Structure formats: C-alpha cells, structure tokens
Amino acid sequence: MGPKYSSLYLRSQVSPPLTTSANSEGLAKLLQSVFGFAAFRVNQEAVCRAAIEGRDLLLVMPTGSGKSLCYQLPALARGGTALVISPLIALMDDQAAKLTSLGLKVARIHSGLDRALARQACVDYLNGSLQFLFIAPERLRVPGFVEMLAKRKLALIAIDEAHCISQWGHDFRPDYRMLGQHLPALRGGEGNVPVLALTATATPTVQADIIAQLGMVEPARFIHGFRRDNLAIEVVEVPVPMRSGIICNLLADAARRPAIVYAQSRKQAEKLAEDLSVKIPAAAYHAGLDAETRERVQTAFQASELEVVVATIAFGMGIDKADIRTVIHAGLPATLEGYYQEIGRAGRDDKPSRTYLMHSYADQRTHDFLLGRDYPPTDHLSQIYRALTAEPQAVEQLRGGSRMGEEEFDKALEKLQIHGGARVDFGGNVTLGRSDWKKAYSIQSLYRREQFDKVLRFTRSHECRMGALVGHFGDVADASLNCGQCDVCDPAGAVLRLFRRPTAGERTWVQDVVEALRGAAYKTVKGLRTELDWAEGMGRDQFEELLGAMLRAELIEVADAEFEKDGKVIPYRKISLTDAGLHVRAATPLPLLISDGVVEEFSGAVAAPVRDRKGKVAAPGKGTHESRPRKSADTAAVSLTPESQALAGRLREWRAAEAKRLGLPAYMVLQDKTLAALAQVRPGNPRQLLTIDGIGAAKAERFGAAILVLCGAGQ
Ligand code: ADP
Ligand code: ZN
User: Fold this and answer.
1) Which ligand is nearest to the CA of 552?
2) What is the phi/psi pair of residue 290, to 5°?
3) Are 39 and 103 members of one domain?
4) Edge-to-edge, what's the strand order for the sheet holding 429-432?
5) Residue 480 counted as domain residue
6) 168 pLDDT tier (thresholds 50, 70, 90)
C-alpha cells in the first residue's frame, strides 16, 4: 500500500486547473493557448461546459467533428489527471502523441508497452504530474490497478469508442462491458468525477445500453452533427441491368462531377469504370488492385485527372477532396452507418451535392447470400461443438473429421470461438468451451440481419431521407426536421426518380383512404388494407406507393411503433390523418405525385441520346457503348507486383512464427485472404490497416504494429 493521501490535497498539489472560471472568455483562452484553435466548433463549447461542471455526458458526433477536444479541454479546466480509456491502442497512441506535442503531460498503459514504462506511468500518476493517463480497458482487471488509480481524485473519466460497450454496437468488446463495475471506485465517494462517453455511432438502443452499463447519472446527451444541409438524397428503384446505362447518362453531365460510384463487387466496379470511361475519365478502385494502382487512382482523382472513381471499398478515407458533387450507390449497402459515411464524402465544400441510391429486390438476395456466408448456420457450429471434448484436439484433425470445406469449417470454428463455445489453447488445440455460445451467436447474427433490414426499411420509407438518417444515429430531436431536398421532401426536384400525376382511379382510392382514417386515432397499414376491398386486390407495393404519395402530399402522418411477440420486436406503422388530410373532401384537388420508376431521359437505355442540363439533346452516340475502347491501365485488374509478392512472403513467414509462438493455428493469426489483401494494399498506417477485410479492432491491436512494420509503414 502506498502512502494515504487526502485526495483533495493531491488535487491541488500539481496540475492545477488551467482556468478558474468556466466562462466563455476563460474557455476560449484555453482553447487558443493550449490547442491553438481560434474558436469552438458548433456544440463543442456546450459539451465542454457541461463536463467542466462535473456532469456525466454522452457524446455522439461524427468522426472528425472534434470529439476529443470535448474531454481534453474540460480535463485541463478541471485540473488533475484525466483518465482516458480507449479500446484501440493505435488510436490511443495517436491521441497521446498529439497531446504530448502540445506540451501536455501524458502517459499510456497498454500491453504494447514496456513494464518499466507502465510502472513509471503509475509513479507519475500518483505524484500528480500527469494531465492525461490513457489505458486499455483490460488493464482494469489487473489486481490492484483500480485501487491504485483510486488513490487520487480524477479530473474526469473519458471513455472513447463507447459503442464497444454495447453488445448492440457493431464492435462489441466484452472487456469493455465490465468497465461499469469499476467506475464507482474510480469516481470515489464524493461523486463529481464526471464520466464522458464518446462515440461516432450509437443508435438509440446503443445509447441507452451505454448509459445503463456505465451507470451514468442523469447524463447530458449531446448527439449532433449528423445532418448535412447540402446533400440531397435520392433513393430510386432500378433493375440491375439498367444501372450502368443510367449511371453513364447521369454522369455525362459535367456539373455532376467529380463523382464516386460505390459498386457491390469488383467485377461490377471494373465493368462500370469501363463503361464510364468511354466518355469520362474514370477508374475502378477496389481491394483486388495493388497498392500502386490504388495510390495512382487516388492521386489522379485528387488532382481531377480522373473525374469518376468506381469503388467497392471505403474509398475516400485517404483523400481530401472537397468538391465531390455526386455519390452513387449502384446497389444496396450493408448498413446505414456505412451508407452515411459514403454519401458524406460528397459536398465537403458545402456546395449543393446529390446522392443516388439504386436498389431492387435483387440486392436483397445478394445480401442474404453474403450474410449466410459470413454468419454460417448454427448447425455448422453445433457440429464442431459436438465433436469437442475436454481433451485437446488438433484443429486439422477436427477439420478433417468434419464434413465441411476448409473455409466453411474455419468460419464456423472462428464464430464458435468468438462466442465461447470452443477454446483454442496454446498448443494450437481445441477444447470444449462454454455451452451458452448459441445465444450469443444468434444475437450477433440476428443483429447483422437487423442492420440490413434497416437499410431495406430506409429505401421503402416515405420519411425525409436525411431525417431518417439523423434519427438512425440517435439525434431524435433533429430527426423530425425535413430536409426539403430529398426525393421524399421534393419529389418534383428528383433527378432520377420519376413521379407522375395520379390517375382518376388512384384519386378515388386516396379519397377512400382519407375516409377510412377519418375519426380514427390511427390505423395500421395492414388494418387499412383489409378494410378497403380494392386494396386487398392490389399488390402491397402499389398500396404502399399510394400511402407514400399521400405522405408526400402531407395528407397523412406515419409513426413508427413496435410490439413484442415471442421475444421478438416487430415494427409496424401507425397511419393517421394530418390537418390537411382532415380537410380533404370529395371535390378537393389533391396535390399527389405517384412514384413511377426512373426518369426516361436517363433510363432510355444506353442507346438513347443524353440531354444536357438545358434539355438540349446531346450529339448522337453519346452514352452508347459502340466504340468502347480497351481497358485503360487504371482499370485493369493487376496481379501481384514483385514488391507485393515479397511482402506476402514476409507476412507468411511472420505468421508462421507468430502462430508458433502463440500456439495457435496460422489462420487465427491471419486468414489467407487477409494476408493477400495486406500484401496488395500495403497499409501505411493504423487507419489504412483497419480498412482491410479481416482486420478488426482486436486484430489491429494485437498484431497491428508488427504488420505495419512488415508493410514498411513509416520508413
Ligand atoms: P473525432 O474524435 O470527433 O473524430 P477529432 O477530435 O480527432 O475528431 O478532431 C478532428 C480534427 O478537428 C482534429 O484535427 C482536431 O485538431 C480538429 N479540431 C477539433 N476542434 C477544433 C476547433 N475548435 N477548431 C479547429 N480544429 C479543431
Ligand atoms: Zn428530405
């Protein structure tokens, strides 16, 4: 036991508060003198103020919006040491380096560091000379560590990437979940040590989970910054074979470029880039291209030599191009998070930009296939589980004994291990794990499916698109505001999505719906359909479209609701009349617009002439594929360069050694396809590393540094 200090004494000893008042002037001064920033960004000041006052807070703001400052400045203002808990070593190192370069006193404790450094960090912490102490969450499990920290009163506790706490978050970390049980000790008896949870992504469910798990006390919630005022979102149903032609026609207009097109497969990306490059400097960008080609595409796009890039992966992370006018999704994305991030690359210069999401039933089937592959049937896991015993068995032997293919088996074993059903020991052998893996696994795979269902619901919704996205990210207050420019808010302004006036029959149907709703608080879609005899005879989509038209005309309102059945949450919608709807009588002219596919000017197949923006018909042949040139060097798929081959060799060697050292099968260090992707992409920093398929936060943390060295990063 170390000496007993009074925490108050310690607090005033070193690192006194850098400002005595939390008034605007004091904070602005601190912002300038320490961080060198002229002014707060929107919301930063309010967040800082709440933290300085000692309030718990939940901060959900997009990446790059300046969340770090929201715990750093309050930490300095409050004085003492701020404890920063971060699940990702790479990001922790990055932040610590930034703070150090500002002249602040910072220490880190994580598994990647020398023991002596960790000891020194503790000494420095105890004698009060640290302003920031960064730790990895698992550190809290080390006996005595929490007690050591509790000897001093902390300035605040910041929890980065807080969504990892929630098993509903997309990156759940079991180690993070037990944070909550240590917080009371760290906050001390007096309370008043605020807990700040920060994340760029938390749906309302995740938010509630974070708050509950951390035992936050009446937290202030700051959920901001997801609305983008200069983005007009358009969602349009387009059959797959028509997409390429439409995209070519759309982007033939120079005012719609530069543009990024997100494709669903490498093949589609190559093909689209090829079709586009008939008229427009365009190239593909995907994980199958080697690092040089990708670098070249990126640089050319940045320099405006290329005007369109067709990408399959998170293209745009490495570039800083502010004038992207159009982002097109040539198929459905897997999650709304990903979708939002991708459309967010448009219009960074704040000028009006447009995004198009193309979808059809076929996209759903593609995703079903992908989900089935990434989340194998529980059956497969059970099969392996049943073969396990308390006696260790070699992976190869188990694999041989199963009736699964190698990849199939590895995928299933990997999932079984993640969810505790199998243990892989240091001899590379597998033993029987816990029996409760099934529940955890089904929660996870269900969660993935739900994420995609949310994308589907987004495409079908008749709500303002931007409002729906903002709401998805948890900014419920801002979600009800209509953007005025998406295909729902402004159907007449839609570029691709075609709307027409209703027929006489449709007008009568709408009148019938109004009468059915009149006097009722609300009715469900299903209820309405059964009640109206003509509705039962029409397709569900057609009925939905009728409601969509009424919603756009502001005759009805739709509220999302849900009920529980057999433990499953089932969403449904409540339809009710608006004031305008109530005033509809038999003779009222109805301002209705019915969705009707794609505007002809673009859908007129590939051979149709393209109109320029003034409506003039462009020269014949424009937009056709008659004289398609050979693949340009940029778009051709490239096999591994000698450098990449050499790197693949080095990675394989390292993997073998690492697997041996850890006593694990090699695939658990890196899967073959991950290794190949690394060799091709050759990531230069932790962020690039994380874009590689198969490298998640845990892998990056464990092996990231070694892999980056092998890839030659920082040389
Ligand atoms: P986040 O954690 O939300 O992803 P960061 O905290 O890393 O974002 O901030 C993103 C960038 O914005 C950083 O380069 C940071 O220095 C800068 N930044 C933050 N606040 C301000 C400010 N008030 N004025 C200017 N730049 C800022
Ligand atoms: Zn809108």
Assistant:
1) 2
2) -80, 165
3) yes
4) 393-394, 429-432, 422-424
5) no
6) low
